[in-house]
Design goal:
The chain is mostly helical and about 120 residues long. It has a domain of about 60 residues. Helices cover about 70% and strands about 0% of the residues. Keywords: Membrane, Transmembrane, Transmembrane helix.
Length: about 120
């Protein structure tokens, strides 16, 4: 059997057109949605393709990148949750019961302060 491994150069050659195609598709989707919805709802002007791509870049700058958990703003919370899960798994039953009671004391009544 032949191995189907690509060299880094071949991967890059395929990667570049795929990124350009995805950017173009996203740009056209943003442009289409903007031009179909916002002019009638908010009386905003129509935009062209390059303005739509600019909006995508602006959203990426303001709200973070569009990755799937490889870092970024939301990753901090996933790391904390994973750390809590491993901590929970290493507790014995007595420690878990103590943790649950402390959690109920601190967070039990959402919107209501527990009187101590």
């Amino acid at each position: 059997m032949r191995s189907r491994k690509f060299s880094k150069g071949k991967k890059f050659i395929f990667f570049l057109p795929v990124v350009a195609l995805i950017a173009a598709a996203l740009g056209y989707v943003v442009m289409y949605l903007w031009n179909c919805i916002l002019p009638e709802v908010t009386h905003a002007g129509r935009i062209n393709f390059w303005q739509a791509l600019g909006l995508l870049v602006l959203c990426r700058i303001l709200f973070g990148n569009f990755n799937k958990g490889n870092g970024g703003p939301g990753n901090h919370f996933r790391e904390k949750a994973w750390g809590l899960r491993s901590k929970w798994d290493s507790m014995n039953e007595e420690e878990r019961a103590k943790f649950k009671e402390e959690y109920k004391r601190r967070c039990g009544g959402w919107g209501h302060r527990n009187k101590e």
